[in-house]
């Protein structure tokens, strides 16, 4: 379950070097080459999945607990005061490497704002209408 020409398959399986902070049978966690802050880490499954819609239950069920473990290490070891867990699916969502990965981004007191958006103002009834569409999909 590896994809040829996938940079994260190569890194996760040790064919290309990266600053590794954790490794087990299913995952390698590395430092991002273009960090949003000091310690910005990427959790890479060793198997190739394009995004979370493709990943199997075993991988999915471990991702969040691993992110928590990495985040706790950032607080203890790097003096981070918080951390963001970010995961992009699809080009419009900012995904640039199409091998599932989770960003764990440490935050520091007085550091830059990193994961922000402008809150919208939905029209009357819009939220309920949108929820109805999604409920139908999820049935
Ligand atoms: P995304 O935009 O969610 O697909 O994130 C891709 C991330 O991978 C970016 O933050 C890049 O800086 C990072 N990145 C790309 N190539 C490498 C690499 N060879 N080693 C470490 N991080 C990388
Ligand atoms: Zn891959």
Give a concise summary:
The chain has 139 residues and is α+β, with helices and mostly antiparallel strands.
Topology diagram in text:
Layout: H1 7-12, E1 20-23, E2 27-31, E3 41-45, H2 57-78, E4 82-86, E5 102-107, H3 126-138
Antiparallel strand pairs: 1-2, 2-3, 3-5, 4-5
Bound molecules: adenosine monophosphate and zinc ion.
> What is the CATH first-level class name?
Alpha Beta
| Largest sheet descriptor | 5 strands, antiparallel
Question: Looking at the structure, what is the overall shape?
Answer: globular
Give the helices and strands as they follow along the chain: HEEEHEEH
Helix content: 25-40%
Average pLDDT taken over every residue = 96
Write down the CATH topology.
HIT family, subunit A
Going by CATH, the architecture would be 2-Layer Sandwich
Helix tally equals 3
In total, the number of strands is 5
Give the radius of gyration: 17 Å
Termini separation: 31 Å
Strand line-up across the major sheet: 1-2-3-5-4
Which structural class should the secondary elements be placed in?
A: alpha+beta
Q: For this structure, what is the CATH homologous superfamily?
A: HIT-like
What proportion strand? Answer: 15-25%
Catalogue the ligands.
Answer: adenosine monophosphate, zinc ion
Low-confidence stretches: none
């Amino acid at each position: 379950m590896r994809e040829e020409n996938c940079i994260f398959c190569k890194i996760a399986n040790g064919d290309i070097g990266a600053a590794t902070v954790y490794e087990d049978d299913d995952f390698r966690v590395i430092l991002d080459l273009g960090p949003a802050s000091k310690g910005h880490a990427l959790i890479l499954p060793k198997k190739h999945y394009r995004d979370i819609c493709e990943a199997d239950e075993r991988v999915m069920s471990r991702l969040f607990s691993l992110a928590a473990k990495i985040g706790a290490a950032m607080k203890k070891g790097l003096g981070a005061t918080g951390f963001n867990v970010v995961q992009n699916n699809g080009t419009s969502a900012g995904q640039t490497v199409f091998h599932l990965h989770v960003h764990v981004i440490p935050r520091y007191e007085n550091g830059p704002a990193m994961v922000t958006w402008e809150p919208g103002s939905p029209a009357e009834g819009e939220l309920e209408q949108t929820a109805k569409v999604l409920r139908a999909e999820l049935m």
